[in-house]
Design goal:
With about 250 residues, this protein is of the alpha+beta class. It has helices spanning about 5-10, 40-50, 70-85, 160-175, and strands spanning about 20-25, 30-35, 55, 65, 95-105, 130-135, 145-150, 190-195, 205-210, 215, 230-240.
């Protein structure tokens, strides 16, 4: 990505963005839905459409990515930290200290998905990690859903329950077979939806990285023909820490 002076201006966040804090699931997990996030979302989207993209072999993301520059990351962290503090997601002595952020585009056709890509996933077991998605495409695309595993009742995957979750999930798959080769978009035999947010241009959703979730992708999704069919987002993993622990 071009790290020119224009990036500094275009990556400006709205201090008056509207924040809705939602408590979801049986444990009241805090999820933030934030509207009017960027001051110039069209400019950021234009940058996203102009990037050179590649597959990210380090994870199972079903599409292409382009790394965001540090200018975006530093502005995002500085804006998001007080937002999360004000709404009780972070304590006053906590901050978002690091992030890994990408422009991201789903491109994998349904028939090419791996079985693990057809069920909800969690990004990390680390309780200090959050995930965020900023939607930079039109409302004809769908948003993000969060799930509960029916057999165990788990909504978040932690160090304490991950082994039991894997045993239970493998038992489910032996009983019911591999999931249908398609993106999950709603309730199934194995998972039930606990919350769903619709996609809205310039909306962000911020949630614990260990919660089970999945993008809501249309059934029998086909690879986009061109960039006009892109579900363009910024996706980020965000590390929180106490201020006195940051060196």
């Amino acid at each position: 990505m071009d790290d020119g002076a224009h990036d500094t201006t275009v990556f400006a966040f709205n201090p008056n963005a509207h924040v809705e804090l939602v408590s979801i699931g049986r444990r009241g997990i805090k999820v933030c839905v934030i509207d009017d996030v960027l001051r110039d979302p069209e400019g950021v989207a234009a940058l996203g459409f102009a990037q050179s993209y590649a597959e990210d072999s380090s994870n199972l993301y079903p599409g292409l990515r382009a790394a965001m520059p540090e200018r975006f990351s530093s502005a995002f962290r500085a804006w998001l930290t007080p937002m999360l503090q004000r709404h009780g997601v972070l304590e006053r002595n906590q901050t978002i200290c690091r992030d890994t952020s990408f422009f991201s585009v789903v491109t994998t056709a349904s028939e090419d998905l791996l079985p693990i890509q057809c069920i909800p996933h969690y990004d990390s077991k680390d309780p200090n990690l959050f995930a965020a998605v900023i939607y930079l495409c039109g409302a004809r695309f769908s948003g993000t859903a969060f799930y509960r595993h029916r057999r165990t009742g788990y909504e978040e995957i932690t160090e304490d329950n991950v082994s039991n979750y894997k045993i239970a999930l493998n038992s489910d798959l032996r009983t019911h077979g591999a999931p249908k080769r398609d993106y999950i978009n709603g309730d199934t035999l194995l998972f039930e939806t606990i919350f769903s947010t619709e996609l809205q241009f310039n909306r962000a959703i911020v949630y614990p990285a260990r919660i089970l979730h999945a993008a809501k992708i249309d059934s029998q999704f086909h690879r986009p023909k061109d960039r006009s069919e892109w579900r363009l987002t910024v996706t980020a993993l965000l590390l929180s820490a106490s201020v006195d622990r940051i060196t």
